[in-house]
Write a structure and sequence with these properties.
466 residues, 4 helices
């Protein structure tokens, strides 16, 4: 299926970025209201007459903005959104703004489905689609598998959500396409079922043949994840994983994905890994002392394993206990590196141009405390609220003005350049990039001479360009 350029921009979730919290003020665009103690006999058209979440979902239609009033919502079973939006009229579920919207898993592990929100179909692309989840909080009670799960669906946006204590993953997908995760805070997942990561994009499919980015994971804060399973292979911050559930390097063929401006620290597994996939762009991420799980050996921060045609640009990797910083685990093909910093550990390969891998201390403002060689520290990793701006860079950092503008690389498809411009010309907290003479390396751009730089991390407000 081929779609024209305007529809591509809609499908890509073209965005304008501005700084602000998910619940800074009450929303003015709601078409329906939900509360934790709502009733489906209510009209749902005003805050005093809210429906239940299921009741609002059942009658929703394309273009609806379903606003959730502040409170604690106990999930005794999985929530399946009942209606899809359209490419030009998404259905949005979001925090109304009068207080935190906290979903807490209240079922036990024997439930038939233990994901909190599930966009599900047995076959791709039949799952519910064109849906946005914004500004909600999820606590899995270390029992629910994932907070936000996609299976067989497409065109989903997960923006500015806070996720903790899920037993497997924060955001997990399999056989999906056009998934966007922006500004989420994911902490302490994987301590029950395990065998997944903070954000896991698995076996993504080609919904259409658009050559630009189909999925993105941008501006997320991820810490404290672990693989409690017997497999002992995950607990990563972010994994772009497999093609059609196959481990075959030769058949790997996945739609382009952008992983940018993420701050990932204190996880049991790697920071970011591309595993048996193609077309992954890893740009301006900050990775700090991951790979804390002593059961996993010879792992590091960034890795390309059995992957092709992928880029690592302007990233910072500071390793824990002399682990690897950047890894290439054969076979790989056309894995390209530009202006990456590493410190505290080596790379496990020799790159043709050594100037693209820079061994130097990045000089963070206030990095979180992690002891050398001590077991189990992923369980004690700071949340993003506790971290604050600790992994931003000092004015004396060698990361200042030493990166490149990835949109200027030669011979890139126009659609890839367009996607990069949408997402990497601001940093994780909204500071324009570049702010000085050139891009800074890592997720943070030093504010320098920029006018009115934003405060500590708050996530992004994202708008779709028509």
């Amino acid at each position: 299926m081929m779609i024209h350029a305007a529809m591509v921009l809609v499908s890509l979730l073209c965005i304008l970025v501005s700084n602000g919290s998910a619940a800074a003020a009450v929303a003015g665009d709601c078409t329906m209201y939900v509360s934790a103690n709502g009733a489906d006999t209510n009209s749902g058209v005003s805050p005093p007459a809210p429906k239940t979440l299921h009741g609002a979902s059942s009658i929703s239609k394309p273009g609806d903005v379903i606003c959730l009033l502040g409170g604690t919502y106990k999930l005794s079973s999985t929530f399946y959104p009942e209606q899809s939006g359209t490419a030009n009229a998404w259905i949005v579920y979001k925090n109304y703004g009068d207080g935190d919207v906290q979903f807490v898993w209240a079922a036990d592990a024997s439930a038939a489905d233990i994901n909190m929100f599930h966009f599900y179909s047995r076959t791709f692309p039949a799952g519910k689609s064109y849906i946005e989840i914004r500004g909600l909080k999820f606590d899995g009670n270390n029992t629910a598998s994932a907070a936000l799960k996609c299976a067989g669906s497409h065109h989903l946006r997960f923006i500015d959500n806070t996720i903790q204590n899920t037993g497997e993953s924060g955001i997990a997908t399999k056989f999906c396409d056009y998934v966007t995760a922006i500004g989420n805070k994911i902490h302490h997942t994987g301590y029950n079922q395990g065998w997944s990561s903070g954000i896991s994009y698995n076996s993504h499919q080609w919904f259409d043949t658009y050559p630009g980015f189909h999925s993105v994971a941008v501006n997320n804060f991820i810490s404290g994840n672990y693989d409690n399973s017997s497999h002992q292979t995950e607990g990563n911050g972010i994994i772009i994983d497999l093609s059609d559930s196959s481990y075959n390097f030769n058949s790997a063929n996945t739609p382009p994905v952008l992983v940018a401006n993420n701050v990932v620290y204190g996880n049991g597994g790697r920071c970011i890994i591309a595993f048996v996939v193609t077309n992954v762009w890893v740009v301006n991420n900050t990775c700090y002392k991951n790979s804390l799980d002593l059961r996993q050996s010879s792992i590091g921060e960034f890795a390309a394993s059995s992957s092709k045609n992928s880029y690592f640009i302007n990233n910072i990797a500071q390793a824990w206990n002399n682990h690897w910083t950047y890894q290439q685990i054969a076979p790989n093909q056309n894995i390209v590196f530009y202006r990456n910093i590493f410190y505290g550990g080596a790379t496990d390969f020799t790159y043709a141009d050594p100037t693209q891998l820079i061994n130097t201390n990045p000089l963070f403002v206030n990095p979180p405390p992690i002891e050398e060689a001590k077991a189990g520290q992923q369980a004690m990793a700071l949340s993003s609220e506790q971290l604050g701006n600790g992994l931003s860079i000092l004015s004396t950092s060698p990361a200042l003005d030493t990166g490149i503008d990835p949109t200027t690389l030669p011979n890139l498809p126009r659609e890839i350049v367009d996607g990069l411009r949408l997402y990497v010309l601001r940093d994780v907290v909204g500071t324009p990039r570049p702010c000085g003479a050139a891009f800074d390396i890592g997720a943070y751009e030093y504010p320098g001479s920029c006018v009115a730089p934003p405060p500590a991390p708050t996530g992004l407000t994202v708008k779709r360009v028509q």
